[in-house]
Write the C-alpha coordinates for this entry.
Amino acid sequence: MSSPYRVAVLVLLATVLWGISAFWEPTDRAPVGETAPVLGALYAAPVERVDTHVLQSGETLDRVLDRAEIAAGDLPGLLLAVREHANPRRLRAGVEVRIRRWFSDGEPRAIELRLNPDSTVRLDRDPLGWSGRVLVTPTTVDTVYASGVIAVGRSVYESIVGDEELALPPSEREALVVELAEIYAYRLDFTHDIRPGDRYRLAYEREARPDGTARRRRILIAEVVNRDRAYPAVYFSARGDRGEYYDRDGQSLQTMFRRYPVDYVRVTSSFSWRRYHPVLGRYRAHLGTDFGAGHGTPVKATADGTISFAGRNGGYGNVIKIRHALGYETRYAHLRAFARGLRTGRKVEQGQVIGYVGATGLATGPHLHYELRRDGAALNARRVKLPGKPGVPKERLEAFRAVLEERVALLDAHAVPGPHLAGTAGETEHTPGGES
Protein backbone atom coordinates (compact mmCIF):
# COMPACT_ATOMS: atom_id res chain seq x y z
CA MET A 1 0.00 0.00 0.00
CA SER A 2 1.34 3.40 -1.00
CA SER A 3 2.04 5.96 1.71
CA PRO A 4 -0.89 8.37 0.90
CA TYR A 5 -3.42 5.52 1.08
CA ARG A 6 -1.92 4.25 4.36
CA VAL A 7 -2.26 7.68 6.00
CA ALA A 8 -5.87 8.00 4.83
CA VAL A 9 -6.82 4.61 6.31
CA LEU A 10 -5.24 5.50 9.69
CA VAL A 11 -7.08 8.84 9.86
CA LEU A 12 -10.41 7.14 9.03
CA LEU A 13 -9.85 4.48 11.72
CA ALA A 14 -9.00 7.11 14.39
CA THR A 15 -12.16 9.07 13.52
CA VAL A 16 -14.39 5.97 13.93
CA LEU A 17 -12.88 5.09 17.32
CA TRP A 18 -13.30 8.67 18.59
CA GLY A 19 -16.96 8.64 17.61
CA ILE A 20 -17.64 5.38 19.41
CA SER A 21 -15.95 6.60 22.61
CA ALA A 22 -17.94 9.84 22.60
CA PHE A 23 -21.36 8.09 22.70
CA TRP A 24 -20.59 4.87 24.61
CA GLU A 25 -21.22 4.63 28.38
CA PRO A 26 -20.08 1.73 30.53
CA THR A 27 -22.90 -0.30 32.10
CA ASP A 28 -21.05 -1.03 35.37
CA ARG A 29 -20.49 2.61 36.47
CA ALA A 30 -20.73 3.02 40.28
CA PRO A 31 -23.95 4.72 41.45
CA VAL A 32 -23.69 8.41 42.32
CA GLY A 33 -22.80 8.95 46.01
CA GLU A 34 -21.25 5.53 46.44
CA THR A 35 -17.70 5.78 47.85
CA ALA A 36 -14.71 3.69 47.04
CA PRO A 37 -14.05 0.73 49.33
CA VAL A 38 -12.04 1.56 52.50
CA LEU A 39 -9.32 -0.72 53.72
CA GLY A 40 -9.42 -1.82 57.34
CA ALA A 41 -6.93 -0.50 59.90
CA LEU A 42 -3.44 -1.86 59.51
CA TYR A 43 -1.08 -2.44 62.44
CA ALA A 44 2.39 -0.95 62.03
CA ALA A 45 4.89 -2.36 64.46
CA PRO A 46 6.96 0.32 66.26
CA VAL A 47 10.47 0.79 64.97
CA GLU A 48 12.04 1.52 68.35
CA ARG A 49 11.45 1.65 72.07
CA VAL A 50 12.88 4.31 74.37
CA ASP A 51 14.21 3.83 77.91
CA THR A 52 15.04 6.86 80.06
CA HIS A 53 17.63 6.85 82.85
CA VAL A 54 18.63 9.75 85.13
CA LEU A 55 22.17 10.48 86.25
CA GLN A 56 22.19 10.28 90.05
CA SER A 57 24.37 12.30 92.43
CA GLY A 58 27.89 10.85 92.48
CA GLU A 59 27.19 8.61 89.49
CA THR A 60 29.26 8.61 86.30
CA LEU A 61 28.01 8.34 82.74
CA ASP A 62 29.62 4.95 82.17
CA ARG A 63 27.79 3.63 85.27
CA VAL A 64 24.48 4.84 83.85
CA LEU A 65 25.22 3.20 80.49
CA ASP A 66 26.19 0.00 82.28
CA ARG A 67 22.92 0.18 84.26
CA ALA A 68 21.11 0.59 80.93
CA GLU A 69 22.74 -2.66 79.74
CA ILE A 70 24.87 -1.08 77.03
CA ALA A 71 27.49 -3.59 75.89
CA ALA A 72 30.95 -3.02 77.36
CA GLY A 73 32.41 -3.03 73.85
CA ASP A 74 30.33 0.06 72.96
CA LEU A 75 31.41 2.15 75.95
CA PRO A 76 34.80 3.44 74.68
CA GLY A 77 33.32 4.63 71.38
CA LEU A 78 30.33 6.22 73.11
CA LEU A 79 32.41 8.13 75.64
CA LEU A 80 34.77 9.31 72.91
CA ALA A 81 31.82 10.64 70.89
CA VAL A 82 30.43 12.41 73.97
CA ARG A 83 33.78 14.13 74.67
CA GLU A 84 33.53 15.98 71.36
CA HIS A 85 30.62 17.98 72.85
CA ALA A 86 30.72 17.62 76.66
CA ASN A 87 32.98 16.38 79.44
CA PRO A 88 31.45 13.08 80.70
CA ARG A 89 33.08 13.60 84.11
CA ARG A 90 31.39 16.97 84.62
CA LEU A 91 27.82 15.99 83.89
CA ARG A 92 25.53 17.12 86.69
CA ALA A 93 23.05 14.97 88.55
CA GLY A 94 19.66 15.03 86.84
CA VAL A 95 20.93 14.67 83.26
CA GLU A 96 18.51 12.46 81.32
CA VAL A 97 19.98 9.60 79.29
CA ARG A 98 17.56 8.21 76.69
CA ILE A 99 18.40 4.87 75.06
CA ARG A 100 16.70 4.28 71.71
CA ARG A 101 16.66 0.56 70.82
CA TRP A 102 15.52 -1.31 67.74
CA PHE A 103 12.23 -2.96 68.59
CA SER A 104 13.14 -6.05 66.62
CA ASP A 105 16.32 -7.11 68.46
CA GLY A 106 16.73 -4.61 71.34
CA GLU A 107 20.08 -3.33 70.06
CA PRO A 108 20.75 0.39 70.76
CA ARG A 109 20.42 2.57 67.66
CA ALA A 110 20.90 5.98 69.32
CA ILE A 111 21.54 7.53 72.74
CA GLU A 112 20.53 11.04 73.81
CA LEU A 113 22.00 13.04 76.71
CA ARG A 114 19.76 15.96 77.69
CA LEU A 115 22.38 18.29 79.16
CA ASN A 116 19.94 21.15 79.85
CA PRO A 117 16.57 22.37 78.56
CA ASP A 118 18.21 23.79 75.41
CA SER A 119 20.91 21.26 74.47
CA THR A 120 20.87 17.52 73.84
CA VAL A 121 23.84 15.44 72.66
CA ARG A 122 22.63 12.80 70.20
CA LEU A 123 24.84 9.74 69.61
CA ASP A 124 24.05 7.60 66.56
CA ARG A 125 25.47 4.22 65.68
CA ASP A 126 27.02 4.03 62.23
CA PRO A 127 29.13 1.40 60.43
CA LEU A 128 32.31 2.87 61.95
CA GLY A 129 31.02 3.03 65.54
CA TRP A 130 29.37 6.02 67.23
CA SER A 131 29.12 9.66 66.11
CA GLY A 132 27.68 12.61 68.02
CA ARG A 133 25.95 15.91 67.33
CA VAL A 134 24.21 18.59 69.39
CA LEU A 135 20.46 19.13 69.02
CA VAL A 136 19.17 22.58 69.98
CA THR A 137 15.65 22.80 71.39
CA PRO A 138 13.54 25.00 69.06
CA THR A 139 11.58 27.94 70.48
CA THR A 140 8.76 30.19 69.30
CA VAL A 141 8.27 33.81 70.30
CA ASP A 142 4.89 34.76 71.70
CA THR A 143 3.34 37.21 74.14
CA VAL A 144 1.42 36.02 77.19
CA TYR A 145 -1.13 38.01 79.17
CA ALA A 146 -1.94 37.19 82.79
CA SER A 147 -4.10 38.85 85.42
CA GLY A 148 -5.64 38.02 88.74
CA VAL A 149 -6.88 39.13 92.14
CA ILE A 150 -5.13 38.33 95.43
CA ALA A 151 -7.45 36.17 97.52
CA VAL A 152 -7.67 36.22 101.30
CA GLY A 153 -4.75 34.37 102.86
CA ARG A 154 -2.75 34.22 99.62
CA SER A 155 0.34 36.07 98.44
CA VAL A 156 1.31 37.16 94.92
CA TYR A 157 3.59 34.12 94.80
CA GLU A 158 0.79 31.72 95.76
CA SER A 159 -1.70 33.41 93.43
CA ILE A 160 0.47 33.04 90.32
CA VAL A 161 2.27 29.77 91.08
CA GLY A 162 -0.96 28.15 92.28
CA ASP A 163 -3.01 29.34 89.29
CA GLU A 164 -3.84 26.09 87.50
CA GLU A 165 -5.51 28.02 84.67
CA LEU A 166 -2.18 29.51 83.68
CA ALA A 167 -1.05 27.18 80.91
CA LEU A 168 2.58 27.20 82.04
CA PRO A 169 4.68 24.67 83.95
CA PRO A 170 5.00 25.44 87.71
CA SER A 171 8.70 26.28 87.30
CA GLU A 172 7.83 28.86 84.65
CA ARG A 173 5.16 30.44 86.87
CA GLU A 174 7.68 30.67 89.70
CA ALA A 175 10.25 32.35 87.43
CA LEU A 176 7.57 34.87 86.40
CA VAL A 177 6.89 35.76 90.06
CA VAL A 178 10.62 36.24 90.70
CA GLU A 179 10.89 38.64 87.76
CA LEU A 180 7.77 40.55 88.80
CA ALA A 181 9.07 40.88 92.38
CA GLU A 182 12.42 42.11 91.03
CA ILE A 183 10.70 44.85 89.01
CA TYR A 184 8.75 46.11 92.02
CA ALA A 185 11.53 45.54 94.58
CA TYR A 186 11.96 49.31 94.92
CA ARG A 187 8.28 50.20 95.26
CA LEU A 188 6.42 47.28 96.84
CA ASP A 189 7.19 44.55 99.34
CA PHE A 190 5.31 41.54 97.97
CA THR A 191 5.62 39.80 101.33
CA HIS A 192 4.18 42.54 103.56
CA ASP A 193 2.50 45.24 101.42
CA ILE A 194 0.09 43.13 99.37
CA ARG A 195 -3.49 42.85 100.69
CA PRO A 196 -6.53 40.72 99.75
CA GLY A 197 -8.34 42.31 96.81
CA ASP A 198 -5.17 43.75 95.29
CA ARG A 199 -4.94 43.09 91.55
CA TYR A 200 -2.23 42.45 89.01
CA ARG A 201 -2.04 42.22 85.24
CA LEU A 202 0.90 41.92 82.90
CA ALA A 203 2.00 41.09 79.38
CA TYR A 204 5.32 39.44 78.76
CA GLU A 205 7.25 38.25 75.76
CA ARG A 206 8.97 34.88 75.86
CA GLU A 207 10.91 32.37 73.82
CA ALA A 208 8.84 29.27 74.55
CA ARG A 209 10.14 25.72 74.32
CA PRO A 210 7.82 22.86 73.27
CA ASP A 211 7.34 21.86 76.94
CA GLY A 212 6.02 25.33 77.84
CA THR A 213 9.09 26.61 79.68
CA ALA A 214 10.87 29.72 78.43
CA ARG A 215 14.46 30.16 77.39
CA ARG A 216 14.15 33.90 77.89
CA ARG A 217 11.35 36.15 79.00
CA ARG A 218 10.78 39.87 79.41
CA ILE A 219 7.81 41.58 81.06
CA LEU A 220 6.78 44.31 78.61
CA ILE A 221 4.28 46.02 80.90
CA ALA A 222 2.80 45.26 84.30
CA GLU A 223 0.39 46.88 86.69
CA VAL A 224 -0.14 46.06 90.35
CA VAL A 225 -3.02 47.74 92.17
CA ASN A 226 -2.21 47.89 95.88
CA ARG A 227 -4.82 49.40 98.21
CA ASP A 228 -6.53 51.05 95.20
CA ARG A 229 -3.29 52.67 94.03
CA ALA A 230 -1.94 51.56 90.65
CA TYR A 231 1.77 50.88 90.22
CA PRO A 232 2.54 50.60 86.48
CA ALA A 233 5.83 49.33 85.11
CA VAL A 234 6.82 49.78 81.45
CA TYR A 235 9.97 48.29 79.96
CA PHE A 236 11.95 50.80 77.89
CA SER A 237 15.56 51.21 76.75
CA ALA A 238 16.09 54.90 77.48
CA ARG A 239 19.76 55.05 76.61
CA GLY A 240 20.00 52.48 73.86
CA ASP A 241 21.43 49.79 76.13
CA ARG A 242 19.85 47.40 78.63
CA GLY A 243 16.31 48.55 79.31
CA GLU A 244 14.75 49.45 82.66
CA TYR A 245 11.25 49.87 84.06
CA TYR A 246 9.49 53.23 84.31
CA ASP A 247 6.10 54.50 85.44
CA ARG A 248 3.72 56.21 83.02
CA ASP A 249 5.42 59.56 83.60
CA GLY A 250 8.82 58.19 82.60
CA GLN A 251 10.16 58.09 86.18
CA SER A 252 12.38 55.12 87.03
CA LEU A 253 10.88 52.47 89.30
CA GLN A 254 14.30 51.97 90.79
CA THR A 255 15.83 53.96 93.60
CA MET A 256 19.51 54.28 94.25
CA PHE A 257 19.10 51.32 96.66
CA ARG A 258 17.18 48.07 96.46
CA ARG A 259 14.67 47.69 99.26
CA TYR A 260 16.14 44.37 100.43
CA PRO A 261 19.43 42.47 99.93
CA VAL A 262 17.75 39.03 99.76
CA ASP A 263 14.78 37.68 97.79
CA TYR A 264 11.51 36.58 99.44
CA VAL A 265 12.30 38.42 102.63
CA ARG A 266 11.19 37.44 106.12
CA VAL A 267 11.99 40.19 108.61
CA THR A 268 12.89 38.61 111.96
CA SER A 269 14.10 41.74 113.75
CA SER A 270 13.57 45.39 112.87
CA PHE A 271 15.65 48.52 113.35
CA SER A 272 15.43 49.63 116.99
CA TRP A 273 17.32 51.85 119.41
CA ARG A 274 16.53 49.38 122.22
CA ARG A 275 16.16 45.66 121.58
CA TYR A 276 16.78 42.60 123.74
CA HIS A 277 19.79 40.72 122.38
CA PRO A 278 19.16 36.93 122.48
CA VAL A 279 22.87 36.05 122.73
CA LEU A 280 24.11 38.76 125.11
CA GLY A 281 20.94 38.64 127.24
CA ARG A 282 20.58 42.41 127.58
CA TYR A 283 19.03 45.40 125.86
CA ARG A 284 21.04 47.32 123.31
CA ALA A 285 20.52 49.22 120.08
CA HIS A 286 19.84 47.15 116.97
CA LEU A 287 20.92 49.46 114.17
CA GLY A 288 19.90 47.28 111.26
CA THR A 289 17.31 44.83 109.95
CA ASP A 290 17.53 41.05 110.30
CA PHE A 291 16.23 38.84 107.49
CA GLY A 292 15.53 35.18 108.12
CA ALA A 293 16.87 32.90 105.37
CA GLY A 294 18.39 29.47 105.01
CA HIS A 295 22.11 28.71 105.00
CA GLY A 296 23.63 29.63 101.65
CA THR A 297 20.87 32.02 100.48
CA PRO A 298 22.48 34.52 98.06
CA VAL A 299 22.99 38.06 99.41
CA LYS A 300 22.91 40.91 96.87
CA ALA A 301 24.41 44.40 96.94
CA THR A 302 21.59 46.91 97.35
CA ALA A 303 23.38 49.58 95.28
CA ASP A 304 26.42 50.19 93.09
CA GLY A 305 29.54 50.78 95.14
CA THR A 306 33.03 49.73 96.19
CA ILE A 307 33.95 47.08 98.75
CA SER A 308 35.55 48.86 101.71
CA PHE A 309 35.86 45.76 103.92
CA ALA A 310 35.31 42.01 103.57
CA GLY A 311 36.37 39.78 106.44
CA ARG A 312 35.80 38.84 110.07
CA ASN A 313 34.71 41.59 112.47
CA GLY A 314 33.73 40.62 116.04
CA GLY A 315 30.01 40.12 116.62
CA TYR A 316 29.28 40.78 112.95
CA GLY A 317 31.09 37.55 112.06
CA ASN A 318 31.86 37.53 108.36
CA VAL A 319 30.83 40.97 107.17
CA ILE A 320 30.96 43.00 103.96
CA LYS A 321 30.96 46.81 103.95
CA ILE A 322 30.22 48.67 100.72
CA ARG A 323 30.88 52.39 100.16
CA HIS A 324 28.30 54.13 97.94
CA ALA A 325 27.83 57.58 96.45
CA LEU A 326 26.56 60.56 98.49
CA GLY A 327 28.16 59.26 101.71
CA TYR A 328 26.08 56.08 102.00
CA GLU A 329 27.41 52.75 103.32
CA THR A 330 25.79 49.31 103.63
CA ARG A 331 26.82 46.37 105.82
CA TYR A 332 25.99 42.67 105.41
CA ALA A 333 26.79 40.54 108.48
CA HIS A 334 26.82 36.93 109.76
CA LEU A 335 27.69 35.63 106.29
CA ARG A 336 28.67 32.02 105.79
CA ALA A 337 30.96 32.89 102.88
CA PHE A 338 31.83 35.62 100.41
CA ALA A 339 31.24 35.45 96.67
CA ARG A 340 34.23 34.25 94.67
CA GLY A 341 36.68 37.01 93.79
CA LEU A 342 35.25 39.50 96.28
CA ARG A 343 37.91 41.70 97.90
CA THR A 344 38.50 45.18 99.28
CA GLY A 345 38.58 47.83 96.56
CA ARG A 346 36.50 45.87 94.07
CA LYS A 347 33.50 47.58 92.50
CA VAL A 348 30.10 45.85 92.66
CA GLU A 349 26.82 46.50 90.90
CA GLN A 350 23.33 46.73 92.32
CA GLY A 351 21.82 43.24 92.52
CA GLN A 352 25.20 41.46 92.27
CA VAL A 353 25.62 38.46 94.58
CA ILE A 354 28.30 39.33 97.15
CA GLY A 355 27.93 36.57 99.76
CA TYR A 356 25.76 33.89 101.32
CA VAL A 357 23.63 33.79 104.45
CA GLY A 358 25.19 32.13 107.49
CA ALA A 359 25.33 32.29 111.30
CA THR A 360 28.84 33.58 112.04
CA GLY A 361 29.51 35.98 114.92
CA LEU A 362 26.81 36.68 117.55
CA ALA A 363 23.96 34.81 115.86
CA THR A 364 21.55 32.17 117.16
CA GLY A 365 20.78 30.85 113.68
CA PRO A 366 21.18 31.59 109.98
CA HIS A 367 20.07 35.09 109.04
CA LEU A 368 21.35 38.28 107.42
CA HIS A 369 21.93 41.44 109.44
CA TYR A 370 21.71 44.44 107.09
CA GLU A 371 22.63 48.03 107.90
CA LEU A 372 22.29 51.28 105.96
CA ARG A 373 24.32 54.30 107.05
CA ARG A 374 24.97 57.81 105.78
CA ASP A 375 28.03 59.75 106.90
CA GLY A 376 28.36 57.16 109.68
CA ALA A 377 24.83 57.62 111.08
CA ALA A 378 22.58 54.55 111.14
CA LEU A 379 19.33 54.72 109.10
CA ASN A 380 16.21 52.56 109.17
CA ALA A 381 16.45 51.00 105.69
CA ARG A 382 12.74 50.14 105.69
CA ARG A 383 11.56 53.67 106.47
CA VAL A 384 14.07 56.15 105.08
CA LYS A 385 13.35 57.88 101.77
CA LEU A 386 16.15 57.05 99.37
CA PRO A 387 17.32 58.96 96.27
CA GLY A 388 15.89 57.76 92.99
CA LYS A 389 17.53 56.86 89.69
CA PRO A 390 17.26 59.16 86.65
CA GLY A 391 14.09 58.93 84.58
CA VAL A 392 13.73 58.89 80.80
CA PRO A 393 15.89 61.67 79.26
CA LYS A 394 13.96 64.55 77.66
CA GLU A 395 15.25 63.70 74.20
CA ARG A 396 13.79 60.17 74.53
CA LEU A 397 10.39 61.09 76.01
CA GLU A 398 8.60 61.07 72.65
CA ALA A 399 9.86 57.54 71.90
CA PHE A 400 8.89 56.46 75.43
CA ARG A 401 5.33 57.78 75.05
CA ALA A 402 4.92 55.86 71.79
CA VAL A 403 6.04 52.63 73.47
CA LEU A 404 3.81 53.40 76.48
CA GLU A 405 0.74 53.89 74.27
CA GLU A 406 1.41 50.59 72.49
CA ARG A 407 1.94 48.63 75.73
CA VAL A 408 -1.10 50.11 77.51
CA ALA A 409 -3.23 49.20 74.49
CA LEU A 410 -1.87 45.66 74.77
CA LEU A 411 -3.03 45.43 78.39
CA ASP A 412 -6.41 47.06 77.75
CA ALA A 413 -7.10 44.79 74.77
CA HIS A 414 -6.95 41.78 77.07
CA ALA A 415 -9.19 42.91 79.88
CA VAL A 416 -10.73 39.44 80.23
CA PRO A 417 -9.53 38.04 83.60
CA GLY A 418 -7.16 35.12 83.62
CA PRO A 419 -4.12 34.06 81.60
CA HIS A 420 -3.98 33.59 77.83
CA LEU A 421 -1.84 34.33 74.81
CA ALA A 422 -1.86 38.06 74.18
CA GLY A 423 -0.84 37.54 70.57
CA THR A 424 1.21 35.36 68.31
CA ALA A 425 1.88 37.75 65.45
CA GLY A 426 5.40 37.48 64.20
CA GLU A 427 5.88 34.05 65.72
CA THR A 428 9.30 32.80 64.74
CA GLU A 429 11.75 30.12 65.64
CA HIS A 430 14.88 31.07 67.56
CA THR A 431 18.15 29.45 68.45
CA PRO A 432 20.50 30.39 71.30
CA GLY A 433 22.65 33.47 70.96
CA GLY A 434 20.17 36.02 69.67
CA GLU A 435 18.78 38.96 71.63
CA SER A 436 15.02 38.90 72.16
User: Anything to note?
Assistant: The CA atoms of residues 303 and 350 lie 4 Å apart. The domain at 267-379 is CATH 2.70.70.10 (Glucose Permease (Domain IIA)). DSSP finds six helices and 24 strands in the chain. The longest helix spans residues 3-23.
